[in-house]
Amino acid sequence: MSLLILGRQGQLARALSEALPDAQALGRETLDLADTAAIAPALLAMRPRAIVNAAGWTAVDLAECEPAAAWRLNASAVAEIAAAAAELGIPLVHISTDYVFDGLATAEYPPDAPARPLGAYGRSKLAGELAAATLCPQHWILRTSWVFSHMGTNFLRTMLRLGGEREHLRVVADQFGRPTAAEDLGALIASLLAAIEAGRAPPPGVYHATGGPVVSWHGFAEAIFREAVACGLLERAPAVEAIATVDYPTPAPRPLRAVLAPSEALLGPGAAAPDWTRALPRSLARIHELARGARPPADLVRS
After folding, report:
1. If we measure between CA atoms, which residue out of 51, 85, 73 comes closest to residue 123?
2. Using CA atoms, how far apart are residues 274 and 41, in angstroms rounded to an integer?
3. For the stretch 150-163, what's the b/e string if a residue is b when 16 or more beta carbons lie within 10 angstroms of its beta carbon?
4. Is residue 229 a contact partner of residue 164, using CB atoms and an 8 Å limit?
5. Rounded CA separation 116/123 (Å)
6. Domain coordinates of the chain in residue numbers?
7. I want to staple 253 with a disulfide (CB 3.0 to 4.6 A). Which of 49, 118, 183, 235 is the partner?
8. DSSP per position, 187-220
């Protein structure tokens, strides 16, 4: 067997399958990571040459209600994956998040900044990082933020759907970060894996895989609508009212400014830094293509 992607239906896993067409992607129906006892035996039997873990619990608010379930997928399962990778002597690329930080810093967070998660989701992801780093010598932990794509469930597609339904939206304007296109992240991971195989990768450790200007959710929403109108995906942009986090309470606390400082060490020869301002028009163009083609999925944006 060659390269193994854990995760199949998520937006990053699907982008990875496009970037790495020869890889095998495993979904829950084939390997359920909630069944932690089954993970290591399955991976040892498959004997991949490398593992990319793009699976996990991503429901931030639900994690506050079901912390044990989030921990099982984001921490316990990662420990089993890392232990299996170590036994096989292969690299593990593990995806993590800006939610490991509290967002109280005024400067951008470098990879070695102290982690202080605010909620159950962030704590489970931090535990997964520690498990990967402790148990697998060949670990590359990539933190990213605000992932979006033309497919799956994400802020971009939610804004487009709501923008087609409403004339007025309220969006949080005091949370800041760097949006990251799943396709850009997938390409960066593919480049990293090639560098690992060629022996020219940065050393194992924690890296920040994101880039482009820092923006608020409100600013990102306005950029989405501006581009959507320009490409003909929406006839008109809704009015977007800027609100504060306190005006939009959620079960899980959100970091206000968990801005990841991009890791230039990830950019090997031919690898482009992620930049959401360049990726956004591409994602919208792909959504437009889907909308004009065969009948789109029920959750696809309506123009």
Report:
1. 73
2. 36
3. bbbebbbbebbeeb
4. no
5. 8
6. 3-150+180-211+258-274
7. 118
8. HHHHHHHHHHHHT-SPPSEEEE---S--EEHHHH
What's the CA gap between 200 and 140, in Å, rounded? 13
Ranges of the chain whose pLDDT falls below 50: 294-303
Residue whose tokens read 């850009």: 184
pLDDT at 298: 39
**Residue 3 near residue 23 (C-beta atoms within 8 A):** yes
Q: Which long-range contacts (CB under 8 A, 24 or more apart) does 250-254 make?
A: 250/60, 250/61, 251/61, 251/62, 251/64, 251/65, 252/60, 252/61, 252/63, 252/64, 252/118, 252/119, 252/120, 252/121, 253/118, 253/119, 254/60, 254/103, 254/118, 254/175
Q: What is the pTM of this model?
A: 0.92
What whole-number distance in Å separates Cα of residue 213 and Cα of residue 207? Answer: 18
Tokens of 293: 């083609």
3-state secondary structure of 77: helix
pLDDT of residue 8: 83
For 140-191, the pLDDT digits (tens) are 999 999 999 999 889 999 999 999 999 999 999 999 999 999 999 999 999 9
Is 121 a catalytic site residue? yes
- To the question of domain 3-150+180-211+258-274 being in CATH 3.40.50.720, the answer is yes
Q: Rg of the chain over CA atoms, in angstroms? A: 19
Q: Where are the beta strands (DSSP E) in 100-185?
A: 139-144, 147-148, 168-172, 176-177, 180-181
Whether 236 and 186 have beta carbons less than 8 Å apart is answered as no
List CB contacts of 206: < 8 A, sequence separation 6 or more: 96, 111, 112, 129, 133, 141, 143
Per-residue pLDDT, 1: 53
How many angstroms separate the CA atoms of 263 and 209, rounded?
6
- H-run or E-run covering 12: helix 11-19
Catalytic pick from 99, 121, 207, 248? 121
